[in-house]
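Researcher: Good morning. I'm working through a list of sequences from a screen, and I'd like to move beyond sequence-only analysis. For each chain I'm collecting a predicted structure so we can compare shapes side by side. This is the next one on the list. No need for commentary yet; just the structure.
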Amino acid sequence: MAAAAATLIAAGCSGVPTQSERQARGKLQTVTQAYQPGDHRAPLPALSTNATLATLLTYAMFNQPRVEAAYYDYAAAVERVTVERSLPDPRLTLEMDIQSVVTVVMPGLMTEVPWIKKLRLRADRVSAESEAKYHVFESAVLQTAYDVKRPYFQLHFLSERLRISREMLALLGELEQSARALTEASKVTLQDVLRAQIEQDRLKTAIANLEDSRKPLLAQLKAALGLRADQPDPPVPAALESTPLDLDPEKVYAAALSRNPRLKALEAEVRQTEADIQLALQSRRPDFNIGIEADAKASPLMYRPSLSVTLPIWRDKLAAEAASARAGKQAAAARLSAEQIQFVADFAAKAFTYREATRNLKLLTESLLSKARLSLDVARAGYTAGRVDFINLLDAERTLLDFELAAADARLQRELALAELSLLIAGTPPSGAPVPGNGQPVKGLHEN
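Model: Good morning. Structure tokens for this chain:
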């Protein structure tokens, strides 16, 4: 018997997977094929000067350590499903009766057998946990994509703000020359020249601050890509790849309710607590310990079967386990409800930001900018003719500068709102993301 048991143990055994385990492993296999094909890290695209936004997104999603950590947490949770649904390891035993010599030698095999439904419930519980971990992984992918897009758009519109400010600085130089000419002709005082110089100094400092702000934005982009401090700075695509602007808030909201990874993770947590309740109820069921021993010295061979049963008699303990599980479910349901409430508020805020930026940009581009340019042209002509003072001319210049910077800011806010709506709220992964269902944008919001 001992030899047979040793052979069995050496050969190894496999349990029977539960339905939830098969589903969890199937999903993990799909994710692994996308994220780590062949159990190796997916090849990263080259970050050349011709890199596009899609290149940066792909590089970040497959290189960001936060995404990698979330993936392995998810994979570990899936592997624990098999652990939880498996029977405990059997034990080899050996008993001997010894007087002056060994009179009895009884090798045996013992094993614990839980109430069989407990194993399935444990597997279901950890399967729900692995589903929550998957959505944490999905959130890490989406957050990484957003972390790339945010400095990408900010860097582009920083360049736009610098272009506008430098053009205004050149214009102020021209206004100073006009003021000097009129001063030499004794038509105005030196005060106009000094005012032009003051305005130029103010704008030069603003330009210096803008140029300096490029460094932290590059650092943010570098961190989002998962690059170390000793690695070179990534190239920033020269051309802006804007998000197509056909946003239908109602469609996005409906789709986001069913796809938002934060909500999906909390829904999985609720399912996990439901399994906890069922497990607590199963604690009332006894577990078994079964074994058999054989007297190797007896002739004929003598067998000694054994059976022990746990007695779940501590009613206060059983009641506390059930109450704890029910309280855990109430807490998980409350967290889900709170997240749903916060989700509605976040969606409303970002949708408003998008609409506000769109309205402001329309006002600026269709009305205010053209009027401000015309006002500046009229003021310049009037100043040269002596009909407008220099303060009014500077006011016209400042108004045009403010409107052009406001237009750039409105474009930036609209792009960031669209990116957050698509990635973090609607849960739409970019093309090539290592999550199932990528490349299927939410209806009502097209995304790069």
